[in-house]
Amino acid sequence: MAAFSSLTDRLSNAFKNLRSKGKLSEADIDGTIREIRRALLDADVALDVVRSFTARIRERALGIEVSEALNPAQQVVKIVNEELTDVLGRGVDRPLNFAKNPPTIIMLAGLQGAGKTTLAGKLGYWLKESGHTPILVAADLQRPNAVTQLQVVGERAGVPVYAPEKGVQSDGGEAVAAPGETTGDPVKVARDGVALAKQKLYDVVIIDTAGRLGVDEVLMKQARDIRDAVQPNEILFVIDAMIGQDAVKTAKAFDEGVDFTGVVLSKLDGDARGGAALSVASVTGKPILFASTGEGLKDFEVFHPDRMASRILD
Ligand code: GDP
Q1: Is 165 within 8 Å of 182 (Cβ atoms)?
Q2: Is the CB of 233 under 6 A from ligand 1?
Q3: Where are the transmembrane segments (predicted)?
Q4: Which residues of 286-297 are buried (b: 16+ CB within 10 A; e: fewer)?
């Protein structure tokens, strides 16, 4: 995974020195912990997360017993793998929460440029491929191009889009037009989109919402208003894995602002340091449900903390 390639190299180096050891001394362990700490900090993992992570590893590594199955270096790698899985998932690895009575409502939130609109297409495509009948709702009325962009994404994914303008195109023929007149009210758009889904039996509604360049209260209130109006089953916070140390601040602000239910890490294909993304689950206690790994429709995967930890340590 490009976003973690440097971290992977650094961690693998940190373990290298342990390989020749038959038994680990406290100094060996501390040396390795120091390297792990530096690698994580250089990858932009938040300081608090690094501290507690390395403290747990140190404690467990000091307790390593001689084992027939694994040498000390392998045991340290195993401990790091387990702790990394915990940091990435807080013990939670859950699927998307579907409504008992459709439609399932998924709202996307995050900063502008985080990858929400792109994700709406990927998620729609993935759901369609797994037998669902999703519809995308364009409730980002902030950016002039956002509605059109979602329509393009929907067309590419073969998923209908509900938008507040007339002439909105749909799933190859059937016109899914707004029932009322054009409106600039994102809450109304979201509500109307859900009503349309109920009427036409779309079973998943994906609502794209506005993002700003920085966290702001007007945006947050708007997102809350949409949330309160449609009561989503999932509020997915989309975060650009490349935004560095700002990730923690942004995630906390959205957590307080809209109390999201899950995280989507986007742009994990980028080659900047993606470590901040590793802090997000830990800092918010919310599970990462998906990863976005490119601009294409299929550059998308269900996130499993244990698999991601193994890939980072690969
Ligand atoms: P939004 O403002 O949150 O809706 O963000 P967009 O979906 O418009 O994405 C912003 C930019 O990031 C666009 O140029 C996308 O093509 C790009 N993008 C989105 N997701 C990914 C990803 O996973 N990887 C890469 N490399 N680019 C992405």
Answers
A1: yes
A2: no
A3: none
A4: bbbbbbbbbeeb
